[in-house]
Amino acid sequence: MADEIKTLDALKDAVADSSAAAGEAAMAATGGEAAPVREPKRDALGRAYATGKRKDAVARVWIKPGSGKVTVNGKEMAQYFARPVLQMILRQPFQVAGVTDQFDVMATVAGGGLSGQAGAVKHGISKALQLYEPALRPALKAAGFLTRDSRVVERKKYGKRKARRSFQFSKR
Prior knowledge:
With about 170 residues, this protein is an alpha+beta fold. The chain contains five helices and five strands. A five-stranded mixed sheet has the order 1-2-5-3-4.
């Protein structure tokens, strides 16, 4: 536990140093106007909360410093998302941010299928990470994890068999 606190303190110090340098660089680039400094958003229990969405799935995600335990709908990640590909999707934001096994995740997800739910939890984890530690935002943004994938199923139109599929044409 003490080692985790030391690593988090070291992470905070590194973030403070890099954010100060980034602030000076932004001020020089914009001609004297400083970019807005983002403050961490955490609740009374030291957690960051975010909502992730993908297709029809919506995930509510809380992260807090810990050992890397991921709980989805009250089950372990490996039990809820049995396919290794879906587990890999959930680990991506931590790997890109360089904070693997430093945060515990508690997520509730509803709607859609397993693939959409994994994408929603990934989106929620990414948003929660950047709210917990704003210095992680550039890496997550560059990887495209903070952008909601807006692709959804197209609605069925009247006069069509599906969204675009027409009935079979008969000349006679």
